[in-house]
Design goal:
With 213 residues, the chain is of the alpha/beta class. The chain is built from six helices and nine strands, in the order βαβββαββαβαααββ. A seven-stranded mixed β-sheet has the order 2-3-4-1-5-7-6, sandwiched between helices. A two-stranded antiparallel sheet has the order 8-9.
Length: 213
Amino acid sequence: MKLVVGLGNPGPKYTGTRHNVGFDVIDYLAAAPGCPAFREKFEAFVTEVKEGDEAVLLMKPLTFMNLSGRAVRAALDFYKLPIDRVLVVCDDFNLPLGKLRVRAKGSHGGQNGLRNIQDQLGSDAYARLRIGVGQPEPGDAVDFVLSKFRPGERAAAEDAVAQAAQAVLAWVRHGTEAAMNRFNGAEAPNEKGKKEKVKKDKKEKPDSAPPAV
């Protein structure tokens, strides 16, 4: 079994916000034909799908962003899963809108959901998939990530969620390195939904993400 965790905040107030793109990816994957309805377990909404011979547990923690690690820890303990069987999907306002970045491990970069997962697991050696949600104005990070996408951004955001779902499937089928090679150099959609080339950094910067709320 593999565990895919989408980060976000529960409740209709946060539906469609930038901070909830992790939830959106899980919902996209759970919309596949034959996928069971979500059930509540591990302080999360979970459902299980099959990808080839691999069972995949899809998870949306209900603890709010800052305590996301409790649900992850509970699932790993219950299924006796090693940490390298986990992929966490979250937003990142330091990436251009629609840009994806897969990593095998790394710092939480100030993202409180990742911070709590790292604290609960005692390690940063879990895979993560960051989704660019655009950049806020200086000092506006909290309000920005809790805002909804503007009309001109929605097509790009929807495309990013679809691409992120494909990245998740690539991780499940072929592993982290294959997902990195395929999606980290991909083009990001601009605000009108068109593609614009995003140059890969010659030297990767440390992982970074918005503060969790």
